[in-house]
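Follow-up to my post from last week.
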Amino acid sequence: MAEHVTIPDHMLAAIASHRQACREPMAAFFYDLPALAARGRAMKAALPPGVELYYAIKANSEAAIIDTLAPVVDGLELSSGGEIARACACSTPRPWVLSGPGKLDADMRDAMTRGVEAFHVESLGEVSRLQAIAASLDRLQAVLLRINPALPPDLSSRLRMAGTATPFGIDEAQLADAVRAVDDAPNLTLVGFHVHAMSHQQCEQRHQRLLASYLERWPRWRALARHPERVTQLNVGGGIGVNYLQPSAQFDWPGLCQALGQRLEAMREPPLVRFEIGRFLSAFCGYYVIEVLDTKVSHGEGFLVCRGGTHQFRLPAAQGHDHPVIHLPREPRRASAGERRPWTVVGQLCTPKDVLSRQQPLQGVAVGDLLVLPLAGAYGYNISHADFLCHPRPDQLFVGDSREARRPQRAEPVS
Ligand SMILES: Cc1ncc(COP(=O)(O)O)c(C=O)c1O
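User reply:
Got it. Predicted complex:
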């Protein structure tokens, strides 16, 4: 059974007031922007000297989320032309890098003309395309080579981008060739290396060892360059996991930062280390709130059929977990006198896969009650198949946003 999270009073007030304004049963995302800023500040404050924090906007690229985090973090990590447009519309301009496989020439050119700080290069083919574009713009462009290093099996997580066959980065065995290709490209300059090896890393000790394995190899990687003195950056990616089932037991970020600081202090020429974190920054600020439309029992199993579903919040289905559910009864006194039983929480889609959570013990649930799914601020709405069955998109409410025009906002297709 999933452990529950408490909902702050100002979020409960925002949910209640939106509900009053809804003419139809509600399904909406609420984002706690002050909590998001506070989390960003706390994560940044824990960093040791010589370490930077970028926000990987793929986790949640809504304008209000980027605007809230941008003043707090050191920069943004982007992976598409659409993300470039969103980052460039941000009210606090920050440095940004462009990464990801399958970069379009048009996006690389757009990035250069809009002042990209560096590219994370994924392949030898990308080196030559980037060189041609930089030459046509008469620009000297900083690049980091993304490495797919060999990794010991005990350092892996559920979702691996490195240490195995993947479309990401350059195999360590081919790194010397890639470094030579960049060194030979007159319009490119190698400034560092990038490794984003995994998602959902929940174990701080394991992540420490992973970072240590990069730092051990760093002098060797750097020595491959014709001008090692220019190679100063090691981007260690994101990938810190969120414990959705036990929200009180989260990854020990301060512990990781402390251990990393000690390791860097012991190095003769430490790199500038950069994290590009998505999930672990934005997950905690989001709440997906859905209304119970129907209650039923089928073959002995209780179902709560709710407004919305996995087409708006695909995360639990994508990760294969039972998301925590908090019950907000319309009539609390009636609910506390009602029967407690396990419920499977489903949405409005015509597929048995539209399950948000299984077997949640809830008391006195009735049609018209609200269910709140917390930890919904990262890879929630934006990874979902929102147009399936032509349901309207959910509202997104940014609580604590100084610009009133942003509240509420009908979700736009993610470009
Ligand atoms: C290159 C790269 N950097 C950073 C991230 C962010 O990862 P996370 O949200 O797990 O921190 C991703 C996510 O897939 C990524 O592909």
